[in-house]
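Standup notes, structure subgroup. Blocker cleared on the nicotinamide-adenine-dinucleotide input:
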Amino acid sequence: MLWSMKKRAYRVNQRVMKAASLMLPFPQPVVLSGPGSVAKLAENISIRGLEHVLVVTDRVLVELGLVDGLLRSLEEHGVRHTVFAEVQPNPTIENVEQGRAVYRDKGCDGIVGFGGGSPMDCAKIIGARVGNPFMSVRMMKGLFKVFLPIPPLFCVPTTAGTGSEITIVGVITDAKTHEKFAISDLKLTPKIAVLDPTLMVGLPPHITSSTGMDALTHAVEAFIGLNGSPYTDEKALEATRLIMASLEKAYLDGSDLQARTDMALASLYGGAAFTRAYVGYVHAIAHNMGGLYGVPHGLANAIILPHVLEFCRHDAQAKLAALARAGGIGSPGEDEEALARAFIEQIKGMNQRMGIPTTIAQLRAEDIPLIARRALAEAHPEYPVPTIMSLAECEALVRGLLA
Ligand SMILES: NC(=O)c1ccc[n+]([C@@H]2O[C@H](COP(=O)([O-])OP(=O)(O)OC[C@H]3O[C@@H](n4cnc5c(N)ncnc54)[C@H](O)[C@@H]3O)[C@@H](O)[C@H]2O)c1
Ligand SMILES: [Fe+2]
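Run returned:
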């Protein structure tokens, strides 16, 4: 009885959030796209009168020389730059505080997030701290807690997965409690997003696959949730189509520029969909795998996605069938139930072909109650999932991920 009342209360909350999200003025970044488009960013920064930008990235990308082209073109346009490359995968509050100190000491007036979701998110939250020096990172956890604007922010994704270049979200880990949490605010939306597929050519296959499955998870969770709109549905279906057509191609041949372009777009569309329509239990559980064990975000999502889809298959059947049709999966004559099953099988098959395991090696049985509690605390009441999960169901699902 109490449980059914709770579920009803969650649904009321979600309907209010849906109405709000339809009315909110989501800012749209200007998108610069195509091979070599990163070269156009510096001009756009200098036109805005910015003099010194903090380039937030990670060591791997600096060592690969991937950031060099951007730095050169900033110099050509008379924009000074300082590189902050201390961002780790699953970035931490310490990374943010270090970056913020560099921003302040160097007298920067804008930020470029250059890399995967980790540097882009770190850049967003450095910006939030710069704009709100009186608020700690923790105080900004949740929805619409960033009080004052952030400095101009520009994002250059080098993975095709998170969609952070278009979302209102920054995800951060508290290294002390191993808790990973999101800060979501319209003010975190970048001014410009650069989709340059040439930056993704050297992405190793295992990162191509896992980040690509993150993009798919965004599209799927946004689409099967109850808070979609015609806009988010269109973006989610198009992202699914592109990913089904191109992810395995990009995995097999990293230099396939068309496949890289498709994936960069799919990632942007997945981000556009979920930032308005939310994610679901896949993300809620995956965030714990990142926070507790450092499992890469996309990898955790890829492994968890089929489990969550099996859990909600009955309630989400029609939408899973629509995703199958968008992805060219199954045959036209098949009924919804068969298509929904085929969609889940397709995801399992892609995982297998791309070497993604079916279990999470680091997961420890004794952590399962904590993981389930934290996951549901993240998901409830906001995530508009097709089927609401109880604690016992969540624990059982996570147990299914044990190696
Ligand atoms: N803000 C959002 O909307 C949002 C959405 C989903 C996920 N996330 C967060 O994003 C983070 C994950 O981001 P990610 O999956 O992009 O991974 P990442 O940024 O952690 O990068 C993973 C690894 O790939 C390397 N790499 C990146 N680009 C490369 C390239 N072009 N060539 C070679 N190596 C490259 C990086 O150096 C790093 O070692 C997580 O913290 C996740 O929670 C944020
Ligand atoms: Fe994600």
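Discussed briefly. The pocket of fe (ii) ion (ligand 2) is lined by residues 162, 214, 217-218, 283, 297, 301 (CB under 6 Å).
Next: hand off to the docking folks.
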